From TrEMBL:
Name of a matching Pfam family: Thioredoxin
Coiled coil: none
CDD domains per the UniProt record, alphabetical: TRX_family
InterPro entries (UniProt xref): Thioredoxin-like_sf (IPR036249), Thioredoxin_domain (IPR013766)
Gene3D superfamilies: Glutaredoxin
UniProt superkingdom: Bacteria
Source organism per UniProt: Kitasatospora cheerisanensis KCTC 2395
Protein name, as recorded: Thioredoxin
Sequence ranges assigned to domain Thioredoxin in this UniProt record: 42-121
High-level lineage: Bacteria, Bacillati, Actinomycetota, Actinomycetes, Kitasatosporales
Length: 128
């Protein structure tokens, strides 16, 4: 049991915050109406958060900084507790979850956990 728990911890640490593409993510498109805010002209960083999530605060700062660095990129924060239908549809299992959308609202990358700034910038390069 201890070995299984240790292995789970190692796997989670390696995968936490990594921006990657899941098989069906590329087919998902989101609109400004669904998110409650307009999409960016070039790309949108969508953050699903909850009020009690500690890493969400640091993720908010990181995404706001990156969005401020690149023209036409918007940062939209969605309260997961008030948007349960959208959370279920997108299969959001934990907060923070970050989605990188292209100009058309298509999901390009996704991260569960707090992403690194460099990874967000790299994912934006693919979306723009």
């Amino acid at each position: 049991m201890l070995a299984a728990a240790g292995a789970f911890g190692v796997v989670r640490k390696v995968r936490d915050g990594r921006l990657r593409m899941r098989g069906k993510d590329g087919a998902v498109r989101l609109t400004g109406a669904e998110l409650g805010a307009p999409l960016g002209e070039r790309a949108t960083l969508v953050q699903f958060s909850t009020s009690f999530c500690q890493p969400c605060r640091a993720t908010r700062r990181t995404l706001a900084e990156v969005a401020g660095m690149v023209d036409g990129v918007a940062h939209v924060e969605v309260d997961a507790e008030s948007q349960l239908e959208l959370v279920r549809r997108l299969e959001i299992l934990r907060t923070p979850t970050v989605l990188v959308l292209d100009a058309g609202g298509r999901v390009v990358r996704r991260a569960a956990g707090q992403p690194r700034r460099a990874d967000v910038i790299a994912a934006l390069g693919e979306a723009v």
